[in-house]
Design goal:
By secondary structure, the chain is an alpha+beta fold. It has 2 helices and 3 strands, in the order βαββα.
């Protein structure tokens, strides 16, 4: 069969939902006698998109993706405002410290 499966992904943002995407790329090494069990465990995990057997120092490369609906914003990352940013840059440019 040429086509293995059909997959449909809805764009919940266009439906008005706030969604937080989590994407993870993980590397695992398992003891030789535990590899079959560990692979079975990985396959059962919700959100696991791809599992690859790899070489070198790790045994598995796993890609995961999960989407979560935002119920309430409790806190957001706070960056420097414009004036604070210029003050930090000004101090850094007039000191002997390395800024970056």
């Amino acid at each position: 069969m040429l086509i293995k499966e059909h997959t449909c992904f809805l764009d919940f943002r266009r439906l008005g939902y706030d969604i937080y995407d989590i994407k993870a790329r993980l590397f695992f090494k398992a003891e030789k006698e535990e590899r079959e069990w560990f692979l079975s465990f990985l396959k059962q995990q919700e959100g696991t998109n791809n599992i690859f057997r790899i070489n070198n120092t790790n045994d598995y490369f796993v890609e995961q993706r999960q989407e979560h609906f935002i119920l309430e914003d409790l806190a957001k990352v706070r960056f420097l405002n414009y004036e604070q940013g210029w003050e930090v840059l000004h101090r850094a440019s007039h000191s002997n410290d390395t800024f970056l």
